[in-house]
């Protein structure tokens, strides 16, 4: 026996895969994932509403088990998984998912915490009153019906949809190769925009946006900026930034508390709180001491308690950056138009809705007209019968059967078969005078209705007027105030600085180019002459060369030995411990191999009326506007042109109002007016600032007035304070006068700067030892003295730099403050007065 295996058709696999995949893709796009622009529904939602309507589950009827609804929809219209149908039903009932729910659910339908709904056998449902508006007039042939999946019955291809569902409830779905994400809107605003379009079909999108201000999410929140909204409404795509609503309160103990009252749309509150807890645990967010969920049936309430002294702004910016307390709603207005997916702008969606409602009104009116004409036809026959009732009765009595009577009535009075049958069916009670009047009154009303319906069909404007009237009426019944606020200003891009607490930092740069920042609070206040504490663990041939104090939000401008300027923010410098080595500066800035850090200056901003004053080891000086360095950043730009082995030794931030004092390593000082040095460009080489001896070099430049107190520190750990008023103003490029009596004991001056009485002075040695002392513990002496010992050194260590900071609200421990009389080497600080000729004042030579 030969087995019949059928016919084998050879086909290329790529063709078969392509055809099958396209069929699958189109099925998902059209029959599952994308909404129809007319009623805004996906097939599953449309079938659920139609199925509930067929079951009689109207808003005024008793609810039925969800399992029964799902089974009915599944068996008749939607042959897919029962869970997918139930999930769609649940979402239609969730107030936090739908701006205007269409299903009235009873039982556990889930929560904003992400809790799943109860099983369908436990929950019940019926249609919401608003759902009835979606199905209004469906029995009046307003929409086309198509066969269901097995051709056993029919289902609507679209609902009449008096509610502009696509706009007011939005839609989201992922098809094959495309997705849709349409935000919900306020019904009152949408109805007003629809009315405005009907009144003026030429209205622009900007005109429509006067009525629809933006999305209105069921969970509220705050939208920042109108750019994303405008992009979504004009292009169909846009990014809308949504933030949680919050308030800040203070507890009785003085702590700040952040309370979140609303969260962005589609954010899971439980997962949100877990995320915040993880960030606090991992120390990504600092400043939070406690977190509680106090939400109840009256509303959402998430309480975040801050640590004492924590900045609410910084904590909020951390939360907005790292959690879903701020999200971007990416609008993609994709919907089916005549069965094809299209990206729609705001006006497109309104136009298609109005067009659909126009068709519904026309079809409904034609249906009502036909029914009215049919009824009028019958009433006219009854009227003829009532006017000739005796003859009608005689004809009926004399007829042998119903057919004969019907025929004789039609022939005698010129009636149609329908009219004759209506007369035969008329009850005798209709012959009473009252019933006769009712028939005649009904006929007059029907004829008036027919004329009204004909007038409506004859006028396009009247049809659109009905669309507008019904939409406005719907908004009057179900509309409510906006829940989502809109702030016109764009949400500020969260700068990294907004996430960083303002804090003073000690910035250290070693001779070999290692840089780090250490919290200023890490250093303990000590007395003058103390041994200090270690600030860096360095290699044997390395030492700390630069030390200064700046806020984490300040700019740090670094001037290289080759006269180039670079800048970065203090918070961009890696933070280290007091003993860590830090990171090499070349990892942060694009500094050449042969360049060294020559000077560092701290800036708040780059301004036109503020300057950087440069001074070189050869005594050359110049002033440059800080605004000239705005573009320096990490690549660097020329700050000063240098010649030979000259190098920059000092760069100070100045407003140009105070005098400048130059101090040399051999103890000479020159005070001059700022006008002595004109403002120059970045590439200028400068002018002569101080005339130096052949063995001398410039050590520092300071901005001073008569009341300024200057501190001097020498390489062997000696120092003093001196009033700047002791210095006489001199002309530029003169030798100045003696300010420090240097000797073999003290060594050369390594640094000088102005201090206040309550300032803290930090001195750094070449081996990385740091001492922190209060400035008023250092003696205030005259020009011709060598000072007192302020740092105890062990050879071959020596002081390399100093800096100052505002004194913190803390008191040094008694044992840390030493009496000056107990110091080693208590030599008399007063020294001999220098000869008069040492205070020369030379005329200004030509600028170099």
Strand line-up in the sheet with most strands = 14-9-8-17
Could you give me the name of the CATH homologous superfamily of the largest domain?
Answer: DNA gyrase/topoisomerase IV, subunit A, C-terminal
What is the molecular shape?
Answer: elongated
Please tally the β strands and state the result. Answer: 41
Largest β-sheet summary: 4 strands, mixed
CATH architecture label name of the largest domain: 6 Propeller
SSE class: alpha+beta
Termini separation (Å)? 117 Å
CATH class division of the largest domain: Mainly Beta
Instruction: From the alpha carbons, calculate the radius of gyration and give it in angstroms.
Output: 44 Å
How many discrete domains?
4
Proportion of residues in β-strands: 15-25%
Helix percent reads 25-40%
Quaternary organization: single chain
Q: Averaged pLDDT, please?
A: 84
CATH topology of the largest domain: Neuraminidase
- Specify the number of helices: 17
Q: Can you tell me the residue ranges where pLDDT is under 50 for at least 5 consecutive residues? A: 808-823, 825-848
